[in-house]
Amino acid sequence: MIPPPTDWAELKTAFTELVDLAPDERAVRLAAITASDPALGARLAVLLDADTAADRQLSRYELLSAAAPDSLMPHEEAGADPLGLCGRTVAHFRIHDVLGSGGMGVAYRAEDQRLGRSVALKFLLPRFTADADATRDFLHEARTASALDHPNICTLLEVGESPHGLFLAMPAYAGETLQQRLARDGRIPVAEAVEIARQVLRGLAAAHAAGVTHRDLKPGNLMLTPDGTVKILDFGLARSADLDLAAPGARAGTVAYMSPEQVRGEAVDRRGDLWAVGVVLYQMLTGERPFGSGRDLTTIYAILHDDPPPPSSRAPDVPPRLDAVVARLLHRDADARYADAAEAIAALEEATAGTPADRVSRSRRRRPVVLAAVILLAAAAAVVPFVRRAGTTGPEVVLEQASVAVLPFTDTSPQRDQQHLGEGVAEEILNALVAVPGLRVPARASSFRFSSDDEVPMAERARRLGVGALLEGSVHRDGDSVRISARLLDARTGRYLWSQTFDRRFRDIFAVQAEIARTVAEALEVHLTADAQRAQPTQNIVAYELYLRGLFHWNRRTAQDLRQAIDFFTQATQHDTTYAQPYAGLALSHVVLAVLQPVANDLPERTHEPAARALQLDSTLAEAHAARGYAYHWQWRWREAERELERAIALNPAYATAHQWYGEHLAKMGRASEGEAHMRRAIELDPLSLVAQNDLGIVLTLDHRYAEAIAQFEHVRRLDPAFPLPLLLLHRVHMFAGDTEAAAEAGRRWAEFTGAADAAELMLLARATRDPALRNDARAVLLRWQREPAPRWPDIAMYFMLLGDHDDALRALELALRARSPMLANLRVAPWMDPVRDHPRFLAVLRQMDFP
Amino acid sequence: MQSSAGDVTVLLRQWADGDRDSLDRLVPLLYAQLRELAHRRLRGEDALHSLNTTALVHEAYLRLVGVHSARFRDRAHFMAMAARVMRRLLVDHARARRAAKRGAGAAVVGLSDELAEVLPLTDEQAGAIAELDDALERLARVDERQSRILEQRYFGGLSLEETAEAVGVSLATVKRELRFARAWLAAELRGDPAI
Question: Residue A652: left if φ>0, alpha if ψ -120 to 50, beta else—which one?
């Protein structure tokens, strides 16, 4: 049936010529061929006929061609419940729903009924635990990994056994995986990509140092939490036996991240993880995988043979110096890669030094602690050393310092109505400890950001707060009887250094607080000074409880809470007119309320009476001095402001708020670098304080460092997306920097989030700064604002300046001066006023404000 | 049967260098891999996934070729070899199955029951594979290139572009050749006597 080769070639040519002709024409041609060569014509007729039916007829043979999927393995998907565990209880976990399933097993969202926290439970496939040896190895690895205790490594809370197999409990992190992020955004901005890679490498460095390699690093295993921390998941769970190419499901979608040695089935060490970081970084920078995203066969071939194009050739905004880092991570010869993760971090930082990527990194890096204290502390023989590095590129500085964070005590009272007591007790202890020389205690705003039902593991809290020990506890009040439990936890080992329960009457509360503070100090081998053990401030237990309630609301910082705080503090002073603290609380509440509502400008003045009364009772109260100083600042009484804030810092050098306000004051006086230093000191003392972080952005803005300011405000956004203030400041700084669209977007989000402004108006104003066609509409908005009952003249002046209407801006400024608007305090350095800085009218306003 | 990495590497190299017999010795090693997969699968360890046949065969191939990574001249070569190995595997499997149906099971060199379960070919599929293989054999005698193109498409699961690369011709040529080859195959498989 097979014709001789010459005929075959002839047949093929004729077929190709005829097959796409119109039927009529084809019939004519076929007839002609048949006439001259009947055999050829007959074969051709059969083939042409077969061609029309080929698709249908051959479909049954297409076992592979049609079926070959892009990726050979099914992808993880949420929803299905293969183990049928939803709604059931396993051990002490109540299982809710499926988070996802994949090669490792199935992950569920569950509630730890014992501790009342929500967790992720991973049930492992039997393959991972097929025999006793394998189980033991697995548990060993899991425990080794969980002992790593690094902020960039997912903590393992528990390993358990159940009739459904082994399971792992881990924190249910908020956020999304890098895989989800990439699926949504495609690419990641360079600065952020570098920061993510840096954090992953930091986690790897810690793991590698402990002898653990990951071996299955991929975007699906990297969790991006809302505060910007990257968590490496499933550490140590991937064993080589489960990762070879034969194990079905074990390598779902992961071929793309395998190193050449892993693909070849050779021994894989830490350098395999570095390769995976290279692949992930490449993908973040360019939006594409370096070795293609096609089928596994193609990918494997590329991994073994191809050099991917440099990232900058695919994404022009990638600095070429990053290409070299990626290429080194992706060197096919493991020996030619970086020797370890630390070296890769150093290279990454060097490659991005001086670029925006660097500044994002720096602002996220904790500042080294003040060295002056360290020399003294070396002798203080801290039992809870906290070791950290002061930047990785510079010389390594290892500091040991006794440090403890006091967490709010949990309220376990029958009515659960003693939260203020739990916080108050903790705060009193914190205040006593702050005064201890040689002991570092993060300020309240940071340590109290973790509520007791928070999911953040203890070790992670300690890491974020930069402390070696944590004090936690609970209060239980029933009528006059109160039980206080306190525990001191060594963050490094997870062991309790000390714990004790006190059953007392409520009226003895001061004695208990002092006792706990003293015991903690002893456990940390530092000594309470007489100052810290100061006499109890009031004998009046009712006044004290009212004070605690006031404090509770003061710490919430919203306008409504501040008014409630003022109520409670006022009542406290009525019960004990000699009790200094509530007066200081009143002063603080008034001044912060004044800042929140800058228009009602009698509020700063109201600060002074309680401040004076507090200081009359106790002249060493730093809070009262600070409140008074900040009030003076808003009242343009610059020298008095400076004196009071300096006094507050002298009285309590660890008082973060005083540094923050002093920093703000100095920046507005034109002393930018001093102001920045104090602001950074405030952040160091209170690393999670949103207002301090936000104010740093303001200081940078006033210093014309817009890119850094933007990075800082973005950082604050990541710390707490529910804190809207940075949006308003981003709206402004983007306008100063000339990015009107970003300014419009930030303005819109601020307006929609807070309802404090009209989104369309802010967007119009932002765009009008660059678009003359919008000027008239924008002016109309500002003219309308001027007719409001209490116009925000400084804002109006700013927008007029940005629109180029200098006369109107100066007029608004003069009206702001007449209204003594507190917000004019930044006028001396306000960048938006630069074009009129030498204008006689502007100079006249400045003169009247009497800047030093 | 467990093979040492050395055996596989040597065989792959020989095969890559043109020693056709080495494929005959490679395929049993591939079976070993498949059996291993089948074993795991029957233990229910990948109950979460329903692998299709393609995926399973790819797995086995990757295990054999990817892991032991013979040096391939280029990607096309690598892909072409994949298609050939898979063809051999599927065809042997299909023939063993058909032989077993006819009662000759034990005598046929082939796959264990485990493998039959893990590669659950229907009678129709087994028949189709055997027919396809026969047809490609016949085609190869007159037009080696066309036979290879069909092999890449039907057994390798390659795209048109990949096929062009694997066979070393332009995309237009692959399309043209494929059009003819498919017509020929359709005619051949329906037993049309005129060709």
Answer: beta
Catalytic residue of the set A7, A97, A137, A216: A216
Say yes or no: B69 contacts chain A, CB-CB below 8 A. Answer: yes
Identify the closest residue of chain A to B149 by CA–CA distance.
Answer: A65
pLDDT confidence bin for A491, thresholds 50/70/90: confident
Helix (H) or strand (E) holding A269: none
Nearest to A264 among B67, B128, B155 (CB): B67
Greatest Cα-to-Cα distance within chain B, rounded to the nearest angstrom: 52
Question: At residue A691, what is the residue type?
Answer: V
Please, are residues A471 and A524 in contact by the beta-carbon 8 Å criterion?
Answer: no
Task: Over range A321-332, report the average pLDDT.
Answer: 92
pLDDT confidence of residue A143: 67
Q: What is the pTM of this model?
A: 0.43
C-alpha–C-alpha distance, residues A119 and A173, integer Å? 8
Q: ipTM for the complex? A: 0.76
pLDDT at A82 over 80: no
Find the CB nearest A301 among B49, B78, B179: B78
Residues A799, A808: Cα–Cα separation, whole Å = 10
Which tokens in the block code for residue A186? 């495609």
Contact B54 A69 (CB under 8 A): yes
How many percent of chain A have pLDDT more than 90?
Answer: 27
Residue A162 pairs in a beta bridge with A165
CB-based contact A804:A810 (threshold 8 Å): no
Residue B44: its pLDDT value, please?
44
Chain B residue with Cα closest to A251: B59
Quickly state the pLDDT bin for B57 (edges 50, 70, 90).
low
Burial class (CB in 10 A: 0-12, 13-18, 19+), A844: middle
Quick check: B71 pLDDT over 70?
no
Active site residue A70: no
Residues from chain A that touch B190, judged by Cβ atoms under 8 A, are: 50, 57
Task: Say whether B179 and A8 touch across the interface (CB within 8 A).
Answer: no
B147 contact residues in A (CB cutoff 8 A): none
Counting every residue written for chain A, the total comes to 852
Beta bridge partners of A502: A484
Nearest to A119 by CA among A162, A90, A150: A90
| A103: DSSP letter | S
- Interchain pair B184, A50: CB under 8 A: yes
